[in-house]
Specification:
Layout (H helix, E strand, L loop, with lengths): L2 H32 L3 H25 L7 H17 L5 H23 L4 H21 L1 H4 L5 E2 L6 E3 L2 E3 L4 H24 L1 H11 L1 H6 L4 H27 L1 E2 L6 H15 L5 H16 L6 H15 L3 H17 L13
Antiparallel strand pairs: 1-4, 2-3
Helix pairs in contact: 1-2, 1-14, 2-7, 2-10, 2-11, 2-12, 3-4, 3-10, 4-10, 7-8, 7-10, 8-10, 11-12, 11-14, 12-13
Length: 342
């Protein structure tokens, strides 16, 4: 690619990022004015679920491990918050931290066994762990509330003098979720560009060669697994505060399956693929479900079409088309000679 083509791509990326940032910052005011205030909550929910899809993407897109058990760590984040607030009387930040630590601890315990396996064996064992703890959460109602879940009263997030900020304020709730999710994606961006991220990619491409050059494949996979648990735990903790609720239902493997679909359709191995995939499917769900109860069929058709015609996902397809356009636009003209017949 020529330097001019690279500059064009960079300028387009900066312009797109600026427009998206302006839109996201204006959501609490522009969306109610243009559509309905209900969609502010939908966008906040999309941000939370995209973080769960990002945890799938970290493992599958950058390490080559397909996990169907990320809902387990999402649920641990939820229950850490709910139990911390309702049973231990914790304030916002200690409960938030408890949810994240619980998710990472669970990821560490299960990852010690799971990352020894690869391919479909890894996917199966993640489902098994998810089902084990799902049924444990269902049966131990004294702790988790089972199907009924745990409801709790929101504590204040910040307090200054007599002023309190909490998730009861929709605008504050939206910006807190936006800031937290943006920070997590920034961390993931730094991770991908770091030597640790390069080691993840080396393992994804060829774990045998990675081990031959001195990389500890098992340890690196375990680190990635715990990091993915961190992302899922943050998402679960945010969702608990968002809904003032925690339930074992969100630990079931079908939640993990949805996150896998969102990540793959958006573009596995790309930073913003999970956001794109999550946005498409949740928006389709919200629009179609008001008119047709079988909206999952449309979601399935969209997923199949994307997998067939865009194997690298929507963001991957966008990158390919953009690269072709910039290369074609900057290609030097081909000189042709006119020949005349004698």
């Amino acid at each position: 690619m020529t330097s001019a083509a690279a500059i064009n791509r960079a300028l387009l990326a900066v312009f797109t990022a600026f427009m998206l940032s302006a839109f996201m910052l204006s959501v609490p005011w522009s969306v109610p004015a243009l559509i309905n205030s209900f969609w502010v909550s939908v966008i906040a929910e999309i941000l939370i679920w995209s973080l769960l899809a990002a945890s799938v993407n970290l493992l599958f897109g950058y390490v080559g491990l397909l996990s169907f058990g990320q809902a387990l760590y999402f649920g641990c984040g939820m229950y850490g918050v709910a139990i911390g607030v309702s049973d231990f009387g914790l304030s916002f930040w200690p409960a938030f931290g408890l949810g994240i630590v619980a998710a990472m601890a669970m990821a560490l315990v299960t990852g010690i066994f799971a990352v020894r396996l690869t391919w479909h064996y890894f996917a199966i064992i993640t489902v098994v762990f998810s089902l084990i703890f799902y049924f444990l959460a269902l049966t131990n109602k004294w702790l988790t509330g089972g199907d009924d879940g745990i409801n709790f009263t929101l504590p204040s997030t910040f307090s200054l003098g007599g002023t309190h900020w909490s998730f009861t304020d929709p605008t504050f709730q939206y910006f807190f979720i936006l800031g937290t999710v943006s920070f997590c994606f920034w961390l993931m961006h730094r991770l991908i560009g770091s030597p640790l991220g390069k080691a993840f990619l080396a393992i994804r491409d060829n774990d045998v060669r990675a081990s031959l050059i001195g990389l500890n494949v098992y340890l690196l996979r375990l680190i990635a697994f715990v990091m993915a648990g961190f992302l899922a735990g943050v998402a679960g903790a945010l969702f608990a505060f968002f809904g003032r609720y925690a339930s074992a239902t969100y630990m079931f493997y079908h939640v993990s399956g949805e996150a896998v679909v969102w990540a793959i359709v958006g573009g596995a191995g790309t930073l913003f693929g999970p956001i794109v995939g999550t946005s498409i499917f949740i928006v389709v769900r919200e629009i179609v479900s008001t008119h047709w109860e079988h909206h999952s069929l449309i979601v399935g058709v969209v997923a199949i079409l994307v997998v067939i015609f865009a194997p690298k996902g929507i963001v991957g397809l966008w990158h390919e088309r953009l690269m072709r356009l910039t290369e074609r636009g900057m290609a030097p003209p081909v000189e042709t000679e006119l020949r005349t017949e004698p």
